[in-house]
Design brief:
four-stranded antiparallel beta sheet; 4 helices
Length: 137
Amino acid sequence: MDASRLRPSPLFAPLSDDELERVATLFQETEILAGSGLAREGDFAYKFFVVLDGEVDVMRGFEPVAKLGPGDFFGEMGVMTDERRNARVQARTRCDLAWMMAWDFKTMADQHPSVAEILEETIAERMASLPQSDGEG
């Protein structure tokens, strides 16, 4: 995929042009129609996504959690933690997405510590927004 399509994402800001070119080889690009499901809450996570164009809705249960657009990313929590997805993601508009499989994601994080640091900070922020279990049940 064309590395310049990834450059707008803050995730890749620390990378040099050469590093970004190498990262771009790990991604596939796809077009998704409005209304298409991209991730289901409770499913095993095996893909990481970057929104190149368009918007997606993130829902937990039936409650909106976030609206993501160009440069935003999702799927990192399940892929990094090997846990099930904690939200549902659906295309709000027609979208162009970059995606990679979990093993490529882990390669990227290992080879680019600055990207891994941003991912870890994002995961911590997103984990803090998750509803806390009351320990009953």
